[in-house]
Design goal:
418 residues; alpha+beta; Arc Repressor Mutant, subunit A; 6-stranded antiparallel sheet; 3-stranded antiparallel sheet; 13 strands; 13% strand
């Protein structure tokens, strides 16, 4: 690839990132963003890297570069959050960061002198907010699997629902079960601040990392390590403010909790501004009003982060069940106690673990073949990527594999091989 022009290598980089868990449509804003974040050497290495996890020798073999040079470039990329290094079986494994959650969040969580944070913020804002691009590519075809899911505020649950809420649905239980913790800047609020668009007074330092992800975040300087009690205080503050709690969309080994405001959060804006309700997976609960004790004050409608509650003279209060997140912010803010969370009738899909979530995300977005055949230099794997990719893109195949009948067996097979 040494003969490529800078524009060519960034175009190839765009294609590589587009082949991960989140689709990244190409446009000139993306081109400018990639140029601002990656040197041409770094871009060239990422293009040559295998999909999925790879050790340093494997990356060096794929790139054709000496180990020392690959190590230097990987260190730079990991410091920027553009590649993640994960300690497995006695050595580091490297994986390319997707745009979400990855490049955007880790870039906007960086702190320090002489960083072009305003430039980054404006580029991310222009790209993510452009109509008909990012959200449409990832949620415009009925996709159901998002990287984040809503956590209900436990105080909002109705009496009968308390016995049905599971530990993986409780923010407090997730924190109590974790062994390590870190808090960093909210990437969305930091982006809006430097783009000149932050209108709220919500604190910047809220983003919570738990468990295995903590070591990476602290080691690379994206967050500071905190105690369990400080993490619990962080949750309590978010409840008082009325923030939406969103977590890693898995049932086991949750790695992060976001504390989201409706004016800054790009995920919530995907629902309220762009009309894609599946940008965040709902909780297994939904809001309901008790007309008998409702004071008709309208607080619930004002508090709803995605405008799912209407309030007027004709319909005192109506919850749009098709978009309600089940976050419970309306109930937490309701002065009369008329709003509560009740169990949904329809089952909500929450993947068991990260492998399941990644597989389902890639299956929906047509990129699973890249994880199944990750070697970019193997001609046989290149053929299989093209063949399997075409097969998986067939609508009946995708529907069958995402359906209840085949999904469990398909995921079990994938995990055995992983």
């Amino acid at each position: 690839m040494g003969h490529m022009t800078a524009k060519d290598i960034y175009r190839e980089l765009g294609r590589k990132i587009d082949g991960l868990t989140v689709r990244v449509p190409w446009n000139e804003t993306l081109h400018a963003m990639l140029r601002a974040l990656y040197s041409t050497e770094e871009a060239d290495l990422v293009v040559r890297m295998p999909f999925g996890l790879a050790t340093l020798p494997k990356v060096a073999e794929a790139s054709g570069l000496p180990n020392a040079e690959v190590r230097r470039l990987l260190e730079s990329l990991c410091d920027k959050g553009l590649v993640m290094d994960i300690w497995l079986r006695g050595e580091y494994h490297y994986t390319i960061s997707p745009l979400i959650i990855g490049i955007f969040e880790l870039t906007m969580m960086r702190t320090g002198a002489n960083l072009p944070t305003r430039e980054w913020a404006e580029l991310f804002h222009d790209y993510l907010q452009a109509p008909g691009t990012f959200y449409a590519a990832n949620f415009g075809h009925g996709e159901r699997v998002s990287v984040v899911r809503t956590l209900p505020h436990e105080e909002a649950l109705g009496t009968s629902e308390h016995v049905e809420v599971l530990d993986y649905e409780k923010a407090a239980a997730i924190v109590s079960e974790a062994k390590s913790f870190a808090i960093g800047l909210c990437s969305c609020r930091h982006e809006k601040l430097h783009a000149g668009l932050k209108s709220c007074d919500i604190p910047l330092e809220t983003c919570s990392t738990l468990g295995s992800g903590t070591e990476y975040m602290v080691r690379r300087g994206f967050a500071r390590e905190v105690s369990q009690s400080e993490m619990q205080d962080n949750l309590a503050r978010s409840r008082e403010i009325g923030l939406v709690l969103m977590a890693d969309n898995v049932r086991r080994d949750v790695s992060f909790i976001c504390h989201c405001c409706p004016c800054c959060c790009n995920v919530l804006l995907g629902v309220s501004k762009f009309g894609y309700p599946n940008t965040v997976v709902t909780s297994t609960f939904m809001a309901r009003r008790d007309a008998g004790i409702c004071s008709e004050c309208g607080t619930c409608a004002e508090a709803c982060p995605i405008d799912a509650i209407t309030f007027n003279d004709e319909i005192v209060s109506h919850v749009d069940e098709s978009v309600c997140l089940g976050c419970g912010v309306c109930a937490v803010k309701c002065p009369s106690g008329a709003m509560t969370l009740v169990k949904r009738k329809q089952r909500v899909l929450h993947p068991e673990n990260t492998i399941e979530r990644v597989v389902l995300q890639c299956l929906e977005r047509g990129t699973l073949q890249n994880l199944l055949f990750p070697d970019p230099n193997n001609t046989t794997q290149a053929f299989m990527r093209a063949f399997v990719g075409a097969f998986l893109r067939l609508a009946p195949v995708k529907r069958a594999l995402m359906g209840d009948t085949l999904r469990s067996r398909f995921l079990a097979s994938i995990q055995r091989n992983a």
